[in-house]
Amino acid sequence: NVSDRRLEVDRVSKRYGDTVALDGMAFDVRAGEIFGFVGSNGAGKTTTMRIILGVLAADSGEVRWDGAPVTLETRSRIGYMPEERGLYPRMKVGEQLEYLARLHGLTRADAVSAARTWSERLGVEARFGDEVQKLSLGNQQRVQLAAALVHHPEILVLDEPFSGLDPVAVDVMSEVLREKVAEGIPVIFSSHQLDLVERLCDRVGIVRAGTMVACDTVEALRASGGEELLVHAPE
Ligand code: ATP
Predict the structure, then answer these.
(1) Residues in contact with 144: Cβ distance below 8 Å, sequence separation at least 6, in sequence order
(2) Which of 22, 44, 72, 233 could form a disulfide with 14 if both were Cys (CB 3.0 to 4.6 A apart)?
(3) What does the pLDDT look like over 98-141, one tens digit per residue?
(4) What ipTM was predicted for this assembly?
């Protein structure tokens, strides 16, 4: 049953030399749930996401999807939007999306079709033949989300996907995320924008010093006096 699937981050720890980045980080995200990841700079959000993705190894602990460990080999199941963004500036939007889809194993025909579909869904189809560097930052971010979706991932992990975006792009991207969630995909995104987190998320996890200090619905966090945490988390 697809709706029973969950992404489990099970007591993950990670150090960079003397710096403890994650210290027993633990939470679950269910299929069909939008999970907001909130915390100040350096709290460990990006490190957690890179470990979920499999590009960074944990020192201890494990990440599982649907009961099985997530590894670099299962990487293609995850759609990732990195904080530093990762588009090739001189590649055309369409070429870029097709290339990424191919990289994740889609056939040429499927890659072409997925590139079209997702650029339309994100409202950048008119820029399909333009170099990425010619686009506004907002449109580049839309392309970046399309890039995370183009290979039909089972999980979406998005690092600050809305940062610096204009309200129209926020609406377009939120709508796409809601649709994916309705299809039974778990979505995890980090954000400093509490209004967005409140609007979009089923549950919110608050991260401090590499640990999950609270994890619940926004309403429950408020009811239990955790509003303090919510308000002060992102700084
Ligand atoms: P931000 O919002 O700034 O991206 P974050 O919550 O994503 O912050 P991380 O980037 O995961 O936090 O960083 C967690 C901790 O690990 C911080 O103390 C950071 O300085 C440290 N750190 C992250 N990457 C490295 C690295 N490659 N080498 C050394 N220390 C690192």
Answers:
(1) 81, 85, 86, 87, 161
(2) 22
(3) 999 999 999 999 999 999 999 999 999 999 999 999 999 999 99
(4) 0.94
- CA dist 171 and 34 (Å) reads 15
Whether pTM > 0.80 for this model: the answer is: yes
Q: What's the 3-state SS for 6-55?
A: EEEEEEEEEEECCEEEEEEEEEEEECCCEEEEECCCCCCHHHHHHHHHCC
Residue 50 neighbours by CB under 8 Å, 6+ apart: 56
Query: DSSP 3-state assignment of 65?
Result: strand
Q: What is the pLDDT of residue 230?
A: 61
| Of 234 and 33, the one with more pLDDT | 33
Amino acid at the residue 86: G
Token digits of residue 48: 């957690």
Atom 18 of ligand 1, residue of closest alpha carbon? 42
Find the residues whose C-beta lies inside 6 A of ligand 1: 16, 19, 21, 39, 41-47, 83
Of 12, 13, 14, 19, the one to substitute when testing ligand 1's pocket (max ligand atoms within 8 A of C-beta) is 19
Contact call for residues 14 and 37 (beta carbons, < 8 A): no
Cα separation of 170 and 229, whole Å?
A: 25
| Rounded CA separation 40/47 (Å) | 13
Cα of 213 vs centre of ligand 1, distance in Å, is 17
**Distance of CA 22 from the midpoint of ligand 1 (Å):** 9
What does residue 34 show for φ and ψ, rounded to 5 degrees?
A: -100, 125
